[in-house]
Amino acid sequence: MSGRTVTLERLAHYLDSGRVPYDPAIEDDPENASQLATLARLRLLSGELLADEAAAEPEPDVGWIAGVMERVRQEARSGRDIPLDSAGPAILHMTEGAVRGLIREAGDSVAGAVVISCSLRGDVSVPAAPVRVEVVISALRGQFVPVMADDVREAVTLALLRQTELDVEAVDIVVGDVHLLDVGATS
Amino acid sequence: MNDSSGVRLRALADELDAAVLAVPGVLRIQPRLDVARLARRVADGFAAVRQGVHAPGSRVEVTVGPEATVVSLDVAIARDHSGPVVARAVAETVLLRLAGEGLPEPRVDVRIVAVG
Amino acid sequence: MNLAARPQGLDADRGGPSAPPPITLTSATDGLLARRAADGDERAFETLLRRHLSLMTAYATRLTGSRADASDAVQEASIAIWRELPTLTAPDAVRGWMMKIVSRKAFDLIRSRKPTADIDDAAVVAQVPVSDQDDPARLALATDAMSKLRLALAALPDLQRQSWLLREVGGESYGEIAEHLGITTTAARGQLARARENLTREMEAWR
């Protein structure tokens, strides 16, 4: 502990910055370099400690997850209210959230494509008001193929036509650049 | 309202639950946490809301006022089904069930909250 | 291969048989799951939650010292995560972001346990987790570095240990640590400095 020329805090910050830019006062000094190595090791071990304890955790309780998802559904970001053709004693409507879920499913159904996000532009609260739909997609694997965009556009247009009362003026497909699949991920 | 009416309304709510779940395309009914809407209805003239029934386990909300009986529910429908079509079918089912119950003018509010 | 069977949830599946099943989410990256969940996809959210739940729970247990409290904190954190995902600007870093929400809810819980009369400038002291793994007899037998770290952490005063965990595991800033613990930023830096001193000294003693 004695003879240290830089504080542990400075060493920790140096670690935080990824050891760049190279600091000779730290790296070239045996004592400081040794302290740095110790700190780095401690950081690694702390992460491993938590991972170790996480691995020892039992499988999540089915009821617990169900309870959380129930609350999530109640908090579902419904978005705007979309009136449906209603008569007499019935008031019928659909949420924007439901429509976006529909769009997501339709886009996902196109082989190789995945929907990242989507939005409805226009005043959906006015029946028969024209609406523009934007869907951001990406290729699940490998390279994106332009025909994929056409297929998604068609699938989404069809789904909205069949399953909503929206007057869709256009479906714009935007290709996003997102790393999507993690082969090493555990469920 | 005395308790026997409460019991009756709860039984009705349960039946409505079952009837709605049987409608083709309905996946589930979700409780609608919409305090604002209820408050609006009260302000709109259901001033003497005699009884708002939300039977335990039931997700259909039945509110009986002096001038109308309002049934409201949020519905999730299965993929490949049409929102307006199922909403209409659910509304018809509910209104059919309410007819002949002797309750004030039945009204139904169906909101499609999820597809698939 | 990129299409999985439709997950059988709690709801009766009455979907049309003609529709293709949804894409598999279990092999999606955190980034994709976070983006979809932010967009409102509940299945993506559930997948993300399941993937990180054990780490979140272990972290909350270390912070609160109680499995029951950890479970509550993680549940509240899960709902907050769902609500706040649309605000996340770096979806690929969602895991770290989720852990910050876990620590926020853990300390909310810890603070709620304290009678307010006692709190002036007094710091919120998190309970020391006394688990089997911290059993001194067991630790004396441990030879690997991880067990030694557990021992060293258990020997730290509470504030030092909490500061260390929040920084090294949670990646929180000095200001965030200070807020969680109810102390000043300077005090938080001091606690962390002392934790580093103690732990590096212990670490070097093992070599």
Series of secondary-structure elements of chain A, N-terminal to C-terminal:
HHHHEEHEEHE
End-to-end CA span of chain A: 45 Å
Helix content, binned percent of chain A: 40-55%
Q: Measured on Cα atoms, how large is the radius of gyration of chain A?
A: 27 Å
- Structural class of chain B, by secondary structure, is alpha+beta
Stretches with pLDDT under 50, minimum 5 residues of chain A: none
Q: How many β-strand runs of chain A?
A: 5
**Shape field of chain B:** elongated
In the CATH hierarchy, the architecture of chain B is 2-Layer Sandwich
What is the strand tally of chain B? Answer: 5
- Assembly of the depicted chains: heterotrimer
| CATH superfamily heading of chain B | Cation efflux protein, cytoplasmic domain
What is the CATH class of chain B? Answer: Alpha Beta
The helix content of chain B, as a percent range, equals: 25-40%
Query: What count of structural domains of chain A?
Result: 2
Mean pLDDT of chain B: 79
Shape of chain A: elongated
Rg of chain B, rounded, reads: 14 Å
CATH class of the largest domain in chain A: Alpha Beta
pLDDT < 50 stretches of chain B: 45-51, 53-57
Structural class of chain A: alpha+beta
Write a concise synopsis of the structure shown.
The complex is a heterotrimer of chains A (187), B (116) and C (207). Chain A has 187 residues and is an alpha+beta fold.
Q: Would you give an account of this structure?
A:
The complex is a heterotrimer of chains A (about 190), B (about 120) and C (about 210). By secondary structure, chain A is of the alpha+beta class. Chain A contains six helices and five strands; from the N terminus they run H-H-H-H-E-E-H-E-E-H-E. Chain A is elongated, with a radius of gyration of 27 Å. Chain B contains three helices and five strands, in the order αβαβββαβ. Chain B has helices spanning about 5-20, 35-45, 85-100; strands spanning about 25-30, 50-55, 60-65, 70-75, 105-115. In chain B, strand 3 and strand 4 (about 70-75) form a beta hairpin. Mean pLDDT of chain B is about 80; it is low at about 45-50 and about 55. Chain C is mainly α and about 210 residues long. Chain C contains nine helices and no strands. In chain C, helix 2 (about 40-65) packs across helix 4 and helix 8 packs across helix 9 (about 185-205). The longest helix of chain C is centred in the first third of the chain and has 23 residues, at about 40-65. Chains A and C meet through helix 1, helix 3, helix 4, helix 5 and strand 3 of A and helix 1, helix 2, helix 3, helix 6 and helix 7 of C.
